[in-house]
Amino acid sequence: MMALSALLLSFCGFAALSLAMDRHQEDVLGRTLASLPNHLLRAAGTGLLVLALLACMVGKTASVAATDWLGLLTFAALAVAALLSYFPRALPPAAGAALLVAAAASLFAF
């Protein structure tokens, strides 16, 4: 369950980091955001990626957790890139749903 949480948290983190970029804001939102929301999105994206690493570390050694995390980051980044390429407006709802499922999966893991 924690691997699922880590994957979904990574997806949300990359979604937040991509929405902090002007280029993707135009595609997804139709406009660019001000400076403060960009900084908040960057901080949220970084925090979510760190939370994904912590989720990978539950019950594993550091080397196995880091390997798992890097593999999950790859799949999450691929999913965000695919959504940005083909269905950019679907990214915010998908990230929101992923965050809810990640929270539920984390609760059920304990």
TrEMBL record:
Entry keyword set = Membrane, Transmembrane, Transmembrane helix
Name a Pfam family for this protein: DUF3325
Where, by residue number, does the polypeptide cross the bilayer? 39-57, 69-87, 93-109
Q: Which domain of life is it from?
A: Bacteria
What is the name attached to this protein's record?
A: DUF3325 domain-containing protein
Q: What is the lineage of its organism?
A: Bacteria, Pseudomonadati, Pseudomonadota, Betaproteobacteria, Burkholderiales
